[in-house]
From TrEMBL, chain A:
Pfam families: GCV_H. This is Glycine cleavage system H protein. Keywords: Lipoyl, Mitochondrion, Transit peptide. Residues 45-127 form the Lipoyl-binding domain. Its cofactor is (R)-lipoate. The modification N6-lipoyllysine is found at K86.
UniProtKB/TrEMBL annotation, chain B:
It comes from the Eukaryota. Transmembrane segments: none annotated. It comes from Fraxinus pennsylvanica. Pfam families: LplA-B_cat (PF21948). InterPro entries: aa-tRNA-synth_II/BPL/LPL (IPR045864), BPL_LPL_catalytic (IPR004143), Lipoate-ligase_2_inactive (IPR053264). Residues 26-212 form the BPL/LPL catalytic domain. This is BPL/LPL catalytic domain-containing protein. PROSITE patterns: BPL_LPL_CATALYTIC (PS51733).
């Protein structure tokens, strides 16, 4: 609570508006990492992006650094970055595998990550290396709870 | 927090050090570089020279242009710039979420202390201002468990250096279409240089137990391989950017025959060099 009071005092003093919606959307059948990326598994393939919670906290995305097709990704390892406000923020892969496609639309329309984080704002498609890794990820309910707890701590 | 005080270190060297400490260290750091040697242009990670720079004078005067690993805009730095960088674990500041805006807010609290009684300091959108004039530009890099926030402070600047920079497309609202010289101010009009640095160190000491460390102690780590991403743009890249802007991408692509295939491959991903000579892969 003290940290929330400190943050709101600082925000008000400097006339900073920090609006976060009371909840972030999740997609029921997706899996989620504690670094706020989602993965949609489809057999041996997967699509990866950042969550609604992440895009809301990051702010307007102005640039997405995409990996090359063929790049190997490891669970928890960074594979690219988004730029928002004045920050570059790493994007970490929820699963290991090989990048088979990147969302080139993001080169011209990085804001898709904000507008449609779970659909048109997808970032990479991966050929899964180890399907067992998916079991270690959170489901939508677990992730929603995780986000609530994280926001409550700060 | 480890405090490293530098003087006149080239900005590229500083950026390489910062990125290595962000990604390879688990300590908290404050790095202060009091001026950098030669005037240098530093763009953010997504900066495009053709959009941000007056390339002709940059090429004529052979100004170095760097693309840094953090986000944000373009600055021209020199001996009149003072750099302050914080590199922290995500739990270093109790209650702070490692996202851009909370980190920016926290940093402004540090400098609020520095400028207490000296000037009308505030954080306006993402800039440090005195009144409504910018004197400090910020940028960040956030990774899984750590974050970096660095600032270039305009202690002084050369008016003539403004000619190298275009007015950026993305500007804060409070700028209100002001030109460079109407938008920025000099910190030297408010506070002596050494006083600013001393007061910054004191303000940091309100948040962390500060211990000084020499650059030599961290300059050459043994056994750690790291490839920094901040880089100096090649003269050829700037020349090509200038040519592109004058003639259009299509004509330039035809004339750059040696680069044609890699350009198409980069843009459309349909030509595979491993099958060079075997035609197009789709």
């Amino acid at each position: 609570m003290a940290s929330k009071l400190w943050a709101s005092r600082a925000a008000s003093y400097f006339r900073i508006s920090i609006f976060h919606r009371g909840f972030a959307t999740v997609i029921k059948d997706f899996k989620y990492a504690d670094t706020h990326e989602w993965v949609k598994v489809d057999g041996s393939s997967a699509t990866v992006g950042i969550t609604d919670h992440a895009q809301d906290h990051l702010g307007d995305v102005v640039y997405v650094e995409l990996p090359e097709v063929g790049t190997a990704v490891t669970q928890g390892g960074s594979f690219g970055a988004v730029e928002s406000v004045k920050a570059t923020s790493d994007i970490n892969s929820p699963i290991s595998g090989k990048v088979v496609e990147v969302n080139k639309e993001l080169n011209n329309s990085p804001g898709l990550v904000n507008a449609s984080p779970y659909e048109n704002g997808w970032i990479i498609k991966v050929e899964i290396g180890n399907s067992e890794e998916v079991k270690s990820l959170m489901d939508s309910d677990q992730y929603s709870k995780f986000c609530e707890e994280e926001d409550a701590k700060h | 927090m480890n405090l490293v005080r530098l003087k006149g270190v080239p900005i590229l060297q500083q950026l390489h050090l910062e990125e290595r400490l962000l990604r390879k260290s688990s300590d908290n750091w404050c790095i202060i570089n009091d001026g950098t040697h030669d005037p240098t242009i530093v763009m953010g990670i997504s900066g495009k020279p053709v959009e941000l720079l007056e390339i002709d004078p940059v090429l004529q005067d052979e100004l170095p242009v760097i693309q840094r690993f953090t986000g944000g805009g373009t600055v021209i730095v020199d001996q009149g710039t003072v750099f302050v960088t914080f590199i922290c674990n995500k739990d270093a500041v109790p209650g702070l979420q490692s996202y851009p805006r909370p980190i920016m807010s926290w940093s402004s609290l540090v400098y609020q202390k520095v400028f207490q009684g000296i000037g009308d300091f505030s954080l306006r959108e993402n800039d440090y201002v005195l009144g409504n004039h910018k004197f400090g530009g910020n940028a960040q890099s956030i990774i899984k468990n750590r974050w970096l926030h660095h600032t270039s402070f305009l202690w002084d600047y050369e008016i003539s250096n403004m000619r190298y920079l275009k007015l950026p497309k993305r500007t804060p609202e409070y700028r209100q279409a002001r030109g460079h010289l109407e938008f920025i101010c000099r910190m030297k009009d408010y506070i002596p240089r050494s006083n600013f640095i001393d007061r910054t160190i004191d303000a940091v000491g309100n948040h962390f137990l500060v211990r000084s460390m020499e650059l030599e102690a961290i300059k050459y780590p043994s056994g750690t391989k790291f490839q920094p991403s901040s880089r100096l743009l090649r003269k050829q890249e700037l020349e090509e950017a200038e040519f592109d802007s004058r003639t259009g991408v299509f004509i330039n692509g035809l004339l750059r025959s040696l680069d044609l295939c890699s350009l198409v491959n980069r843009e459309y991903g349909i030509y595979n060099f491993s099958n060079f000579g075997h035609g197009w892969n789709e």
